[in-house]
Amino acid sequence: xxxVVEAIARHVHLCQEHLDILFGYGHKLTPRKYxxxxxxFLAAEDIQILxxxxxxxxxxxxxxxxxxxxxxxxSDCRALGLxxxxxxxxxLSGSGSCVLVGPxxxxxxxxGVIVPQRHVHLTPxxxxxLHAADGETVRVSVHSDKRSLTFEDVLVRVSPEYVTCCHVxxxxxxxxxxxxxxxxxxxx
Length: 188
Known about the structure:
The protein has helices spanning 16-23, 74-80, 124-130, 170-176; strands at 2-8, 11-13, 31-34, 41-51, 54-62, 69-71, 86-87, 96-101, 106-116, 119-122, 137-142, 149-158, 165-169, 182-187. It has 188 residues and is of the alpha/beta class. It is globular and about 45 Å long.
């Protein structure tokens, strides 16, 4: 099966409490661009992520979530002086810390910083076709000019709410020389 492979830049998902602190009470994120996954959008607002080594701007992804989650690459970890485990989205217990700064305030986030595990979103029908189950891992091969690569340990996420596609971070996309969305072949 072939899937779209998207490069995902550093970004932050905020809970409503943290959105209120960073942007003012009752603030609602402004959609700038709707993303491939239904209901998700790139917000017009952005924030700063601070670590002992420096700071970077980060996109906000809406809608708000139950818990704040910061997703950065290993290169970002090194540049910011942060420690962050490679984790599936939502697996935040014991994860990294940072400071988030918005126009109205800042938050000392004690946990919630991760390097997102590469993953493939599958509809139940596509998962059945692949004989893959939620939580398993697969391979995704991406071909490019002189930098083809097979990603191992790609986490399978299955939901009827998903659109089938694969997400890798910018470090991984740069290793392949990806520009824009490309096709990858999924195999067990």
